[in-house]
Amino acid sequence: xxxxxxxxxxxxxxxxxxxxxxxxxxxxxxxxxxxxxxxxxxxxxxxxxxxxxxxxxxxxxxxxxxxxxxxxxxxxxxxxxxxxxxxxxxxxxxxxxxxxxxxxxxxxxxxxxxxxxxxxxxxxxxxxxxxxxxxxxxxxxxxxxxxxxxxxxxxxxxxxxxxxxxxxxxxxxxxxxxxxxxxxxxxxxxxxxxxxxxxxxxxxxxxxxxxxxxxxxxxxxxxxxxxxxxxxxxxxxxxxxxxxxxx
Length: 247
What we know:
By secondary structure, the protein is α+β, with helices and mostly antiparallel strands. Helices cover 30% and strands 25% of the residues.
């Protein structure tokens, strides 16, 4: 969607703040021995307390309040009995809606002490997001975001997962445009003032080769390499974008 009124922006800021606050509560709850189902229940309780609902659950009948992916699970991990262990990377991906507006964000969180490689991977995903913000300006092509992300990721020794992208958001969970994490010359869409979208570097320490697991939801790296994911919902402007989901 694109912002059409001050009321639009106010409502998006509100749901964005809710998503950011819940992700920070989840970050603090992560630790060895915690199950992904327990984290999911916390997310559900926090959304209910704030009058928000899970978009994946409502739109796609996802079997959880949010997506929780561990280690080689890249995205769309289904919460369950799995316990987190020291050294894991857990991706907490929360999309919530309230009063007809949607915000989406993801953080990658270390479980206790992680390897140097794992820490570099998570840092790279966040750094690629931050650098992509410099390209997220009205009048720039959407594919410039992907160029910046891919350049940062590859220069750090990692790979972008090309099958997974950012996207427009605001009225529902997935809208146009597609926001690839690599340079796609055929994508001639332009960023416009007020456009609401996600930028979300999704990267791996191994090969860019993923598959969907038998649960029909969880996307995993075929070589079992670690992955990281960092995402915010933002509004495009003539200058610096407005990040809606920052806590």
